[in-house]
Amino acid sequence: NPDSRGGHASSLEPGGSNGMDNNGGSKGDGDGRRREGHPNVVSMLDAFVHRGGGGGGGPTNGGFHCLVFELLSHSLYDVLRSTSFKGVSLGLIRKFARQILSALSFLRSRGVVHCDLKPENVLLVSADRSAVKLIDFGSSCLVGDTTDFTYVQSRFYRAPEVILGLPYASEIDSWSLGCILVEMHAGTPLFPGMDERDQLGNIAEALGPVPRWMHDRCPPEKRSMHYPHLVGAAQGEGGGAGGGAGGGGGGGDVPVPGSRPLRGIIAAAARKFELSRHGERRGGDVGGLTD
Protein backbone atom coordinates (compact mmCIF):
# COMPACT_ATOMS: atom_id res chain seq x y z
CA ASN A 1 0.00 0.00 0.00
CA PRO A 2 1.25 3.54 -0.68
CA ASP A 3 2.55 5.29 2.40
CA SER A 4 0.72 8.63 2.55
CA ARG A 5 3.58 10.27 4.42
CA GLY A 6 6.31 9.53 1.91
CA GLY A 7 4.60 8.17 -1.17
CA HIS A 8 6.50 4.88 -0.84
CA ALA A 9 5.03 1.41 -1.18
CA SER A 10 5.04 -0.33 2.17
CA SER A 11 3.78 -3.39 3.99
CA LEU A 12 2.03 -3.25 7.36
CA GLU A 13 2.54 -6.20 9.70
CA PRO A 14 0.81 -6.59 13.07
CA GLY A 15 3.39 -7.70 15.62
CA GLY A 16 1.04 -8.62 18.46
CA SER A 17 1.10 -7.07 21.90
CA ASN A 18 3.79 -9.09 23.63
CA GLY A 19 6.36 -9.97 21.02
CA MET A 20 7.68 -6.65 19.74
CA ASP A 21 9.23 -3.49 21.07
CA ASN A 22 8.82 -0.03 19.60
CA ASN A 23 11.94 -0.45 17.48
CA GLY A 24 10.56 -3.53 15.75
CA GLY A 25 12.69 -5.93 17.73
CA SER A 26 11.42 -9.42 18.41
CA LYS A 27 11.23 -10.97 21.87
CA GLY A 28 14.69 -12.33 21.20
CA ASP A 29 16.67 -9.77 19.26
CA GLY A 30 15.66 -6.98 21.61
CA ASP A 31 16.19 -4.08 19.22
CA GLY A 32 15.25 -4.33 15.56
CA ARG A 33 17.86 -1.73 14.71
CA ARG A 34 20.56 -4.37 15.17
CA ARG A 35 19.55 -5.84 11.81
CA GLU A 36 18.99 -2.58 9.92
CA GLY A 37 21.33 -1.31 7.25
CA HIS A 38 22.04 -4.22 4.91
CA PRO A 39 20.84 -4.36 1.28
CA ASN A 40 19.65 -7.96 1.67
CA VAL A 41 17.68 -7.47 4.90
CA VAL A 42 14.18 -5.97 4.80
CA SER A 43 14.02 -2.34 5.92
CA MET A 44 11.58 -1.29 8.60
CA LEU A 45 10.09 2.13 7.83
CA ASP A 46 8.04 2.75 10.96
CA ALA A 47 6.56 1.20 14.11
CA PHE A 48 3.55 2.25 16.14
CA VAL A 49 0.97 0.97 18.64
CA HIS A 50 -2.62 0.57 17.45
CA ARG A 51 -5.05 0.71 20.36
CA GLY A 52 -7.96 -0.74 18.45
CA GLY A 53 -11.63 0.10 18.68
CA GLY A 54 -14.20 -0.56 21.37
CA GLY A 55 -11.85 0.26 24.22
CA GLY A 56 -10.30 -3.20 24.20
CA GLY A 57 -6.87 -2.11 23.14
CA GLY A 58 -5.69 -5.55 22.12
CA PRO A 59 -5.40 -8.94 23.81
CA THR A 60 -3.62 -7.61 26.88
CA ASN A 61 -5.04 -4.05 26.78
CA GLY A 62 -1.66 -2.80 25.67
CA GLY A 63 -2.60 -2.40 22.04
CA PHE A 64 -1.15 -3.99 18.93
CA HIS A 65 2.42 -3.22 17.95
CA CYS A 66 2.39 -2.61 14.19
CA LEU A 67 5.47 -2.59 11.98
CA VAL A 68 5.73 -0.90 8.59
CA PHE A 69 8.19 -2.52 6.16
CA GLU A 70 9.22 -1.75 2.61
CA LEU A 71 7.02 -3.54 0.08
CA LEU A 72 8.76 -6.47 -1.62
CA SER A 73 7.73 -9.01 -4.25
CA HIS A 74 7.38 -12.81 -4.45
CA SER A 75 9.12 -15.31 -2.17
CA LEU A 76 11.54 -18.02 -3.25
CA TYR A 77 8.72 -20.48 -2.60
CA ASP A 78 6.68 -18.61 -5.21
CA VAL A 79 9.62 -18.88 -7.60
CA LEU A 80 9.68 -22.65 -7.08
CA ARG A 81 5.93 -22.90 -7.53
CA SER A 82 6.18 -21.02 -10.83
CA THR A 83 8.38 -23.84 -12.15
CA SER A 84 5.82 -26.48 -11.07
CA PHE A 85 8.39 -27.42 -8.41
CA LYS A 86 10.94 -28.57 -11.00
CA GLY A 87 13.61 -26.21 -9.66
CA VAL A 88 15.65 -23.29 -10.96
CA SER A 89 19.09 -23.13 -12.55
CA LEU A 90 22.35 -23.24 -10.63
CA GLY A 91 23.22 -19.83 -12.05
CA LEU A 92 20.18 -18.25 -10.42
CA ILE A 93 20.76 -20.19 -7.20
CA ARG A 94 24.31 -18.80 -7.00
CA LYS A 95 22.92 -15.28 -7.18
CA PHE A 96 20.48 -16.01 -4.39
CA ALA A 97 23.17 -17.74 -2.30
CA ARG A 98 25.65 -14.85 -2.48
CA GLN A 99 23.06 -12.38 -1.26
CA ILE A 100 21.71 -14.56 1.55
CA LEU A 101 25.23 -15.39 2.74
CA SER A 102 26.04 -11.68 2.80
CA ALA A 103 22.92 -11.02 4.87
CA LEU A 104 23.71 -13.86 7.30
CA SER A 105 27.28 -12.63 7.69
CA PHE A 106 25.91 -9.19 8.56
CA LEU A 107 23.44 -10.61 11.08
CA ARG A 108 26.16 -12.69 12.68
CA SER A 109 28.34 -9.59 13.06
CA ARG A 110 25.43 -8.00 14.95
CA GLY A 111 24.87 -11.08 17.10
CA VAL A 112 21.44 -11.82 15.59
CA VAL A 113 20.19 -15.32 14.72
CA HIS A 114 17.26 -15.29 12.27
CA CYS A 115 15.89 -18.66 13.51
CA ASP A 116 13.32 -19.14 10.72
CA LEU A 117 15.11 -19.08 7.39
CA LYS A 118 13.03 -20.81 4.68
CA PRO A 119 11.98 -20.09 1.07
CA GLU A 120 8.87 -18.21 2.25
CA ASN A 121 11.08 -15.78 4.21
CA VAL A 122 13.35 -14.79 1.33
CA LEU A 123 11.64 -12.27 -0.95
CA LEU A 124 12.50 -10.85 -4.34
CA VAL A 125 12.93 -7.08 -4.37
CA SER A 126 10.96 -7.01 -7.63
CA ALA A 127 9.39 -9.71 -9.77
CA ASP A 128 11.85 -9.35 -12.66
CA ARG A 129 15.13 -9.17 -10.70
CA SER A 130 17.19 -11.72 -8.78
CA ALA A 131 17.86 -9.34 -5.86
CA VAL A 132 16.48 -10.77 -2.59
CA LYS A 133 15.98 -9.73 1.03
CA LEU A 134 15.43 -11.67 4.26
CA ILE A 135 12.16 -11.00 6.07
CA ASP A 136 10.25 -12.11 9.19
CA PHE A 137 12.45 -11.67 12.24
CA GLY A 138 9.64 -12.55 14.62
CA SER A 139 11.51 -15.64 15.84
CA SER A 140 14.97 -14.08 15.85
CA CYS A 141 17.16 -13.99 18.94
CA LEU A 142 20.54 -12.81 20.10
CA VAL A 143 23.52 -15.15 20.22
CA GLY A 144 23.86 -16.45 23.77
CA ASP A 145 20.26 -15.60 24.68
CA THR A 146 18.37 -18.58 23.26
CA THR A 147 17.37 -20.53 26.36
CA ASP A 148 13.76 -19.30 26.52
CA PHE A 149 12.84 -20.34 23.00
CA THR A 150 11.20 -23.76 22.77
CA TYR A 151 10.25 -23.53 19.08
CA VAL A 152 12.65 -22.22 16.47
CA GLN A 153 13.02 -22.97 12.76
CA SER A 154 10.44 -24.59 10.52
CA ARG A 155 10.88 -28.35 10.63
CA PHE A 156 12.26 -28.98 7.12
CA TYR A 157 15.00 -26.39 7.78
CA ARG A 158 15.66 -27.21 11.45
CA ALA A 159 19.27 -27.85 12.44
CA PRO A 160 20.21 -31.04 14.37
CA GLU A 161 21.27 -29.11 17.46
CA VAL A 162 17.79 -27.57 17.66
CA ILE A 163 16.10 -30.96 17.23
CA LEU A 164 18.31 -32.40 19.98
CA GLY A 165 17.68 -29.53 22.39
CA LEU A 166 21.31 -28.36 22.37
CA PRO A 167 22.60 -24.77 22.55
CA TYR A 168 22.56 -23.06 19.17
CA ALA A 169 23.86 -19.92 17.50
CA SER A 170 24.23 -18.42 14.02
CA GLU A 171 25.21 -21.77 12.53
CA ILE A 172 21.58 -22.88 12.50
CA ASP A 173 20.85 -20.22 9.87
CA SER A 174 23.65 -21.64 7.72
CA TRP A 175 22.05 -25.08 8.00
CA SER A 176 18.71 -23.68 6.85
CA LEU A 177 20.37 -21.96 3.92
CA GLY A 178 21.97 -25.22 2.78
CA CYS A 179 18.56 -26.90 2.84
CA ILE A 180 17.06 -24.02 0.85
CA LEU A 181 19.72 -24.08 -1.86
CA VAL A 182 19.27 -27.80 -2.53
CA GLU A 183 15.50 -27.37 -2.57
CA MET A 184 15.70 -24.52 -5.07
CA HIS A 185 17.41 -26.85 -7.56
CA ALA A 186 15.60 -30.08 -6.71
CA GLY A 187 12.17 -28.48 -6.47
CA THR A 188 11.30 -30.36 -3.27
CA PRO A 189 12.56 -30.10 0.35
CA LEU A 190 15.86 -31.78 1.14
CA PHE A 191 14.71 -33.21 4.50
CA PRO A 192 10.87 -33.46 4.49
CA GLY A 193 10.40 -35.02 7.92
CA MET A 194 6.85 -35.59 9.18
CA ASP A 195 7.89 -34.93 12.78
CA GLU A 196 11.15 -34.30 14.65
CA ARG A 197 11.95 -38.02 14.93
CA ASP A 198 11.45 -38.48 11.21
CA GLN A 199 13.38 -35.28 10.51
CA LEU A 200 16.45 -36.57 12.34
CA GLY A 201 16.12 -39.86 10.47
CA ASN A 202 16.11 -38.03 7.13
CA ILE A 203 19.20 -36.08 8.11
CA ALA A 204 21.06 -39.20 9.28
CA GLU A 205 20.28 -40.99 6.02
CA ALA A 206 22.07 -38.23 4.12
CA LEU A 207 24.84 -37.22 6.53
CA GLY A 208 25.46 -40.27 8.71
CA PRO A 209 24.77 -41.00 12.39
CA VAL A 210 24.41 -38.41 15.11
CA PRO A 211 27.83 -37.86 16.76
CA ARG A 212 28.01 -39.44 20.20
CA TRP A 213 28.98 -36.14 21.83
CA MET A 214 25.78 -34.50 20.58
CA HIS A 215 23.65 -37.38 21.84
CA ASP A 216 25.34 -37.37 25.25
CA ARG A 217 24.73 -33.63 25.73
CA CYS A 218 21.07 -33.52 24.71
CA PRO A 219 18.33 -33.55 27.40
CA PRO A 220 17.00 -37.01 28.40
CA GLU A 221 13.54 -36.26 27.02
CA LYS A 222 15.10 -35.58 23.62
CA ARG A 223 17.15 -38.80 23.62
CA SER A 224 14.10 -40.96 24.16
CA MET A 225 12.23 -39.59 21.15
CA HIS A 226 14.87 -40.49 18.57
CA TYR A 227 16.02 -43.73 16.98
CA PRO A 228 18.72 -45.15 19.31
CA HIS A 229 20.65 -46.64 16.40
CA LEU A 230 21.18 -43.20 14.84
CA VAL A 231 23.95 -42.49 17.36
CA GLY A 232 27.28 -43.26 15.71
CA ALA A 233 29.40 -44.51 18.60
CA ALA A 234 26.71 -46.98 19.65
CA GLN A 235 27.55 -49.06 16.60
CA GLY A 236 31.22 -48.19 16.29
CA GLU A 237 32.93 -45.85 13.89
CA GLY A 238 31.08 -47.13 10.87
CA GLY A 239 27.72 -45.60 11.72
CA GLY A 240 24.28 -46.95 12.38
CA ALA A 241 23.17 -50.54 12.35
CA GLY A 242 21.00 -51.85 9.58
CA GLY A 243 17.44 -52.97 9.71
CA GLY A 244 14.80 -51.82 7.32
CA ALA A 245 14.95 -49.66 4.29
CA GLY A 246 15.84 -45.99 4.40
CA GLY A 247 13.14 -43.42 4.09
CA GLY A 248 12.33 -41.94 7.48
CA GLY A 249 10.32 -43.16 10.40
CA GLY A 250 6.84 -41.92 9.59
CA GLY A 251 5.94 -44.95 7.48
CA GLY A 252 7.38 -47.59 9.78
CA ASP A 253 10.72 -47.98 8.00
CA VAL A 254 13.84 -47.53 10.08
CA PRO A 255 16.26 -44.97 8.60
CA VAL A 256 19.75 -46.28 7.90
CA PRO A 257 22.48 -43.68 8.48
CA GLY A 258 24.39 -42.91 5.30
CA SER A 259 21.99 -44.86 3.07
CA ARG A 260 21.04 -41.80 1.02
CA PRO A 261 24.25 -39.73 0.75
CA LEU A 262 23.93 -36.00 0.21
CA ARG A 263 26.15 -36.16 -2.87
CA GLY A 264 23.71 -38.60 -4.46
CA ILE A 265 20.72 -36.44 -3.55
CA ILE A 266 22.28 -33.42 -5.24
CA ALA A 267 23.30 -35.43 -8.30
CA ALA A 268 19.75 -36.76 -8.64
CA ALA A 269 18.40 -33.21 -8.36
CA ALA A 270 20.72 -32.07 -11.15
CA ARG A 271 19.61 -34.93 -13.42
CA LYS A 272 15.96 -34.20 -12.68
CA PHE A 273 16.46 -30.53 -13.49
CA GLU A 274 18.19 -31.25 -16.80
CA LEU A 275 15.49 -33.72 -17.83
CA SER A 276 12.75 -31.23 -17.05
CA ARG A 277 14.67 -28.54 -18.91
CA HIS A 278 15.13 -30.55 -22.09
CA GLY A 279 12.25 -33.02 -21.97
CA GLU A 280 9.48 -30.50 -21.43
CA ARG A 281 9.22 -26.79 -21.16
CA ARG A 282 9.40 -25.66 -17.55
CA GLY A 283 7.03 -23.15 -16.06
CA GLY A 284 8.25 -19.59 -16.44
CA ASP A 285 9.99 -17.88 -13.56
CA VAL A 286 8.01 -15.36 -11.55
CA GLY A 287 7.45 -12.21 -13.56
CA GLY A 288 9.93 -13.33 -16.21
CA LEU A 289 12.73 -13.68 -13.65
CA THR A 290 15.91 -14.88 -15.35
CA ASP A 291 19.49 -15.66 -14.45
From TrEMBL:
<keyword id="KW-0808">Transferase</keyword>
<keyword id="KW-0067">ATP-binding</keyword>
<keyword id="KW-0418">Kinase</keyword>
<dbReference type="Pfam" id="PF00069">
    <property type="entry name" value="Pkinase"/>
</dbReference>
<feature type="region of interest" description="Disordered">
    <location>
        <begin position="1"/>
        <end position="37"/>
    </location>
</feature>
<feature type="region of interest" description="Disordered">
    <location>
        <begin position="232"/>
        <end position="260"/>
    </location>
</feature>
<protein>
    <recommendedName>
        <fullName>Protein kinase domain-containing protein</fullName>
    </recommendedName>
</protein>
<keyword id="KW-0547">Nucleotide-binding</keyword>
<dbReference type="GO" id="GO:0005524">
    <property type="term" value="F:ATP binding"/>
</dbReference>
<feature type="compositionally biased region" description="Basic and acidic residues">
    <location>
        <begin position="28"/>
        <end position="37"/>
    </location>
</feature>
<feature type="domain" description="Protein kinase">
    <location>
        <begin position="1"/>
        <end position="291"/>
    </location>
</feature>
<dbReference type="InterPro" id="IPR000719">
    <property type="entry name" value="Prot_kinase_dom"/>
</dbReference>
<keyword id="KW-0723">Serine/threonine-protein kinase</keyword>
<dbReference type="InterPro" id="IPR011009">
    <property type="entry name" value="Kinase-like_dom_sf"/>
</dbReference>
<feature type="compositionally biased region" description="Gly residues">
    <location>
        <begin position="235"/>
        <end position="253"/>
    </location>
</feature>
<dbReference type="InterPro" id="IPR008271">
    <property type="entry name" value="Ser/Thr_kinase_AS"/>
</dbReference>
<dbReference type="InterPro" id="IPR050494">
    <property type="entry name" value="Ser_Thr_dual-spec_kinase"/>
</dbReference>
<dbReference type="GO" id="GO:0004674">
    <property type="term" value="F:protein serine/threonine kinase activity"/>
</dbReference>
